[in-house]
Write a structure and sequence with these properties.
Blueprint lengths: L1 E5 L10 H7 L2 H12 L3 E6 L3 E7 L4 E9 L2 E6 L10 H21 L25 H20 L13 H120 L6
Antiparallel strand pairs: 1-5, 2-3, 3-4, 4-5
The structure holds zinc ion.
The site of zinc ion (ZN) has 7 residues, from helix 3.
Length: 292
């Protein structure tokens, strides 16, 4: 999270615990204070206008940048907390910076400054003269060897020795944080691989569907060709039928002509018959009455 807070102080060491407490959320102050007392704050680089630091939080290591610029306190932390106007980690860093900057400021002006009112015991700046016990280092080294072997094999870290909060405990915490991050990365990678497999299966399914569609298209095309062929044969049949009906028409005409001709011949024959009858009658008349 990132914040910009109006600030009248011109040096970071002027931000004392009561002042910090008066502007931040009470839980953020309490937890920040606890982090300082548990020695979880590392100031990497600092002067009166800016601080670079890291804090071992409850879920990992977070990095902060705090600046005093143009009448504003600019805070930046890699955490995602929504504490206003700054997170517990930035609070812890300001408290830690105030604690270790105080003696130096006081040393420059020993008589002008009021006696320290901070509730913290004297402690040198972190990183410069750490208060490390040799026995703790021995315990740490004993833990470190199996821990490194476990890390190499990708196994879980051995149970950490119980140490008082301090430099060595923070080393162990830092290694555990790295291990947690590695496990998170592995989990993310596994999830990605599973996702990839799902996608491949989906692509396979789509390919299969596409194949089915192609087959369907092919059979539809074949059916269309068959229909076209059938249609063509119907057309041929229709043309022949038309031809036949024309022929029938022609035949019908010929029949009619023939019938007309027959009728005409029939009537001529009738006329001829009549002529014969008349001729016969005439012949009888000429021959007189029959002998008998
Ligand atoms: Zn933070």
């Amino acid at each position: 999270m990132r914040n910009r807070i109006p600030c009248t102080a011109d040096r970071l060491s002027l931000l004392d615990p009561p002042m910090i407490q008066s502007v931040v959320e009470s839980t953020a102050f309490q937890i920040g204070h606890q982090y300082v007392s548990e020695n979880r704050v590392r100031i990497v680089e600092a002067d009166e206008s800016q601080i670079s630091s890291a804090v071992i939080g409850n879920s990992g290591l977070y990095e902060q940048t705090i600046k005093l610029k143009d009448g504003h306190l600019l805070t930046k932390c890699t955490c995602t907390l929504v504490e206003e106007p700054m997170c517990r980690h930035c609070v812890a860093v300001l408290l830690e910076y105030h604690r270790w900057s105080q003696p130096r400021t006081a040393a420059k002006r020993p008589r002008e400054t009021r006696p320290r009112e901070t509730p913290y015991p004297e402690r040198p700046p972190s990183g410069s003269v750490p208060d490390i016990k040799l026995s703790e280092i021995m315990i740490f080294m004993e833990w470190l060897q199996p821990a490194v072997r476990a890390l190499e094999k990708g196994q879980a870290l051995p149970e950490a020795p119980t140490l008082e909060a301090g430099e060595v405990a923070s080393w162990i915490q830092a290694i555990r944080n790295l291990e947690d991050r590695r496990r998170e990365s592995e989990a993310v990678q596994l999830a990605l691989e599973a996702d990839m497999r799902d996608r491949e299966a989906y692509v396979g399914h789509l390919t299969h569907q596409l194949q089915i569609s192609l087959d369907e298209t092919k059979s539809a095309q074949a059916a269309r060709r068959e229909l076209q062929e059938e249609l063509a044969s119907y057309k041929t049949m229709l043309a022949r039928t038309l031809e036949i009906s024309k022929e029938i028409g022609r035949f019908d005409g010929q029949m009619k002509t023939l019938a007309g001709e027959l009728m005409e011949k029939g009537s001529r024959l009738e006329a001829l018959a009549v002529s014969f009858q008349e001729l016969a009658a005439a012949l009888r008349t000429l021959g007189g009455p029959p002998v008998g």
